[in-house]
Amino acid sequence: MKLYPTVGKIAVKIDEYETTTSAGIIVNNARQYEFKDGFSTGTVASIGPVPPDSKGRTIPLEYEVGDRIMFPFNMKYPVLEGYLILEQHIPIAVIGEDTVIGGLG
User: Mean pLDDT in the chain?
Assistant: First the structure.
C-alpha cells in the first residue's frame, strides 16, 4: 500500500514495540506505541507537498523520507495499518542512529 499525503501532511510508519502482560504474554502491536512521557517514534514513509508560507516562500523540512522522528502522541489522526498521518510541523525531533530514547535505541 502506498500513502500519498496531501499538502502539509506526512505519513509515518509507527514503530512497533513488544509489551508483556502480567500473565507473561508478549504482545507485539503497533497500536501500543504510547510512552509514559507522551511521545512516540516512527519512520517517515512519505511527505506531501510543502505549502508556501505567508510570503509565498517554501521552507524546506528538516527531515526526509526514511528518517526516524519523535512526535507527541496526543495527535488525533487515524492510524491505518500502522501508519499515522501528521501535519508537517508536528515532529519535534529527528532521531539519529546513535540516539537512545528511554533505552529503545
Answer: 78
Instruction: Tell me the pLDDT tens digit for each residue of 39-75.
Output: 888 999 999 999 998 999 988 899 999 999 998 877 6
89: three-class secondary structure by DSSP:
coil
Q: Which three cell numbers stand for residue 100?
A: 537512545
Q: Quote the CA–CA distance of 60 and 104 in Å, as a whole number.
A: 29
Q: Per residue in 28-66, is it b (16+ CB within 10 Å) or e — as a string?
A: eebeebeeeeebbbbebbbbbeeeeeeeeeeeeeebeee
Q: What angle do CA 66, 71, 10 make, to 5 degrees?
A: 50
